[in-house]
């Protein structure tokens, strides 16, 4: 999602600024305007339409109709009305003509007619050259299109009109963050925060800036502040969990400190439960989810909490309990394809492969465009059931549905290379992966494997090192164990696997059959390590 500098959408912001200046108002117009002011867009649309039938030259009604039709994504109808508004607004009405050009520019942007977008914004600015919001909106569009130099010019121009505009500083900071000019980004975002310490978007962006500079403490402090200002902002809570990978104790301390005056709060407690789960502290996470489910109660929708608890059970290796929660969710809504996919994953982890395939088949029927189901079923076919032809068919379908999913290409490439001896086709998939993954992600990286298969082992090792440095998670340490084992680096593989266990890896069934680890599985060190952690898991969970 592209970060925005302010919460209001362009059209909402636009209409807030419009005052009811029409002189000769019909009864239909009055009803429509009152309905719109009260948020009743359906009634507003009906009566603005009636007004333009009686008064075809009503510029204001055409204007409002255009905006309302844009909200409905009926862009051709919207464009017709805004053209009429421009036709009927007098030349002397510079403010309304400017606003109409903005709407026309926004319609052009939605229609991907970019040249016209900026042509109409230029006309709007010509009529209101001191109107800051025009530069903000245009700067946002430039940013979204990657035209950062033009976005920068607009944000800088705003500061010549208003030297204390927080959105301009926020825009510049966001630009510099995108360009990886972290010192400048930090400086501009700090200025925005100094001007308004409740400007949470700037805090969120500065947290990203700190994180990229490996200033993990500062990143955590900023993102916790964002959560305290906007506790229901899910993106910020996800960022907090990511940053916690580099300092769990600080993250937990700050989270507890911020939430101490709210003994039980749905957002804070959910975040704490996720934090526990992120760091393999599953008992604490499950206890927190149990309390949340009880606290929220039957009068409210608790399905999302049941889902969270189910995934926590699954990650904890408690597959029967995860499946119980998924069963509850499926009984409540047997049309939710995602829950069937997740239950399939739990069955796969539990070694019940046919049940997993059955759930994936149901999910495919409910959502035939979701590539993930085909990828997962193909994985089961090739790795667990050794049905290579079926696997290849599923991987091909998954690639067709989502040609940019690197993991599907990795699995298909390996199958082609190792099971069908089609080296050229396999190398083609590995090369595509190497071009797809331009940035390190928190999870799901597989470029390191592609580089290994392309015989670029030193690059693969360096990339794996970079991944672990930036995102030292349980999953990434397991990926490192697999990569090192494939390279026959037994000591490094065992150390990475040990760290993965320490961070909460309880997927023992998967580990036991993962052929990436074949080079270390017969060693006494692996057997001892696996046995130790598996026995610890059984004791802790009374199994």
UniProtKB/TrEMBL annotation:
Domain of life per record: Bacteria
Keywords on record: Repeat, Signal, TPR repeat
Signal peptide: 1-24
One Pfam family here: TPR_16
TPR repeat ranges per the UniProt record: 98-131, 132-165, 166-199, 200-233, 303-336, 337-370
Name of this protein: Tetratricopeptide repeat-containing protein
